[in-house]
Write a structure and sequence with these properties.
With 155 residues, the chain is an all-alpha fold. It is built from 7 helices and 2 strands; from the N terminus they run αβααβαααα. One of its GO terms (cellular component) is cytoplasm.
């Protein structure tokens, strides 16, 4: 097996551990496709793709159709080319593109709470749970932070 395939399997294991889920498995065809790609963003792009697949791939086995289409396009005209390939905004754009292609609607109502939940969790972890400081880091008042925690069921 190639270095890229071993690295992809490693990153799928790491992402699964971080998210507390069972690691995805690469279908042989998917593994071959991954090893043939250029990976202009290098290892970081492969790592982010594996993290994305851990969350977004429908089944336990990652099929070729689970891969983001942008990987197969030399330079995707619709993709945010002004963004680095491993940025969170690029991953968000890939998620949105995939969701829209599968017929999803109301993406903002799905993405916004997840974005807020992620930022809140990270800010609170960064401040060892101090709400006043976490609110300041997020550019919110303490009351807004408290309300958001309640809305998102994070109290």
């Amino acid at each position: 097996h190639s270095y890229k395939a071993r690295t992809a399997r490693h990153f799928l294991q790491v992402a699964a551990r971080e998210l507390g889920v069972e690691a995805k498995l690469l279908h042989p065809e998917t593994e071959t496709a991954l090893t043939r790609l250029a990976w202009p963003g290098n290892v970081r792009q492969l790592e982010n793709t594996c993290r994305w697949l851990t969350v977004m791939a429908a089944g336990q086995e990652v099929l070729i159709q689970d891969l983001p289409g942008e990987l197969f396009e030399a330079s995707a005209p619709d993709s945010p080319s002004h963004l680095p390939p491993d940025s969170w905004a690029t991953l968000l754009a890939q998620w949105a593109d995939r969701a829209l292609r599968s017929g999803h609607q109301n993406l903002l109502s799905e993405a916004q709470p997840e974005l807020e939940r992620t930022l809140l969790t990270t800010a609170l972890r960064h401040t060892q749970g101090h709400k006043q400081e976490a609110a300041r880091l997020l550019g919110w008042g303490r009351n807004t932070l408290t309300r958001k925690l309640k809305e998102l069921g994070m109290e």
